């Protein structure tokens, strides 16, 4: 069946360090892929998405590339800030309507100054 | 512009009871989806409502039911509560034709004792 696996956290980094959070997926067909972020005390927010192979989603300095050959959608940022501390969720959609998402378990990122 | 609002924020029930959770979508949105997020897990899709009908359903038993009203607000009902129903329940809204861009509420934390 469809599933998402992301690296377990927590991930602890110093400000300005490079960030990678790994995400791999299993899916039938060609799903869209997403990264959502949950800041402390807030609801989930869409960070970026990619709808087909080789697409790169980007937002707020974060990037992720849809890699069909490795079934991956790794999240990267060149220089993290304290304000990036949050829980990050990788997700895919499994219906054409696009709102039925399958989420990974989430990765907690903690950035210190 | 109010985002997605959910009520109540916290709720405590005992096994066997019934509960109703409420959600008001972001202004202008017509589609509501519900997710269950257990502690340490990613959200799991329960169902989606559009035009007052259930359009898509995840792998949840019939004890979970919902409703959407003409003003697009929605309710999630859970009957015969089990300890395992303890979780954060998230509501997400979207526009039907832009359904991959979900806006999430902060959730209702349900504890079943």
Give the uncertain stretches of chain A in residue-range form: none
Biggest beta sheet summary of chain A: 6 strands, mixed
Helix content of chain B: under 10%
Mean model confidence by pLDDT of chain B = 93
Shape descriptor of chain B reads globular
Tally of helical runs of chain A: 0
Q: Give the count of helical stretches of chain B.
A: 0
Q: Percent of residues of chain B in beta strands?
A: over 45%
Q: How large is the radius of gyration of chain B?
A: 13 Å
Q: Report how far the terminal alpha carbons of chain B are from each other.
A: 37 Å
Could you please describe the fold and organization of this structure?
The complex is a heterodimer of chains A (113) and B (113). Chain A has 113 residues and is mainly beta. Chain A is 0% helix and 49% strand. In chain A, the strands form 3 sheets. In chain A, strands 2, 5, 6, 10, 11 and 12 form a 6-stranded mixed sheet that branches. Chain A is globular and about 45 Å long. The N and C termini of chain A lie far apart (41 Å). In chain A, 39% of the residues are buried. The mean pLDDT of chain A is 92. With 113 residues, chain B is an all-beta fold. Chain B is built from no helices and 11 strands. Chain B has strands at 5-7, 10-13, 19-24, 31-37, 44-50, 53-57, 64-68, 74-78, 87-94, 103-104, 108-112. In chain B, strands 2, 4, 5, 6, 9, 10 and 11 form a 7-stranded mixed sheet that branches. Chain B has a 4-stranded antiparallel sheet with strand order 1-3-8-7, with no helix packed on it. The radius of gyration of chain B is 13 Å and the shape is globular. The mean pLDDT of chain B is 93. The A-B interface holds A 4, 32, 34, 36, 41-46, 49, 51, 89, 91, 93, 95, 97-106 and B 3-4, 31, 33, 40-45, 48, 55-56, 58, 90, 92, 94, 96, 99-107.
């Amino acid at each position: 069946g469809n599933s998402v696996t992301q690296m377990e956290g927590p991930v602890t980094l110093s400000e300005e360090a490079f960030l990678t959070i790994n995400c791999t997926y299993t899916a039938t067909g060609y799903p869209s892929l997403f990264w959502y972020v949950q800041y402390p005390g807030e609801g989930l927010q869409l960070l970026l998405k990619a709808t087909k192979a080789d697409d790169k989603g980007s937002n707020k300095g974060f990037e992720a590339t849809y890699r069909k050959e490795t079934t991956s959608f790794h999240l990267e940022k060149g220089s993290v800030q304290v304000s990036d501390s949050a829980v990050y969720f990788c997700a895919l959609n499994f219906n054409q309507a696009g709102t039925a998402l399958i989420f990974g378990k989430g990765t907690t990122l903690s950035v210190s100054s | 512009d109010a985002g997605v609002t959910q009520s109540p924020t916290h709720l405590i029930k005992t096994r066997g009871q019934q509960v109703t959770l409420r959600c008001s979508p972001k202004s202008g949105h017509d589609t509501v989806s519900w997710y269950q997020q257990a502690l340490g897990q990613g959200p799991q899709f329960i169902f989606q409502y559009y035009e007052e009908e259930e359009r898509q359903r995840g792998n949840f038993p019939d004890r979970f039911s919902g409703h959407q009203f003409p003003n697009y607000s929605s309710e999630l009902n859970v009957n015969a509560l089990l300890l395992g129903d303890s979780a954060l329940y998230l509501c997400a809204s979207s526009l039907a034709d832009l359904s991959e861009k979900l806006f999430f509420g902060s959730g209702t934390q349900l504890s079943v004792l």
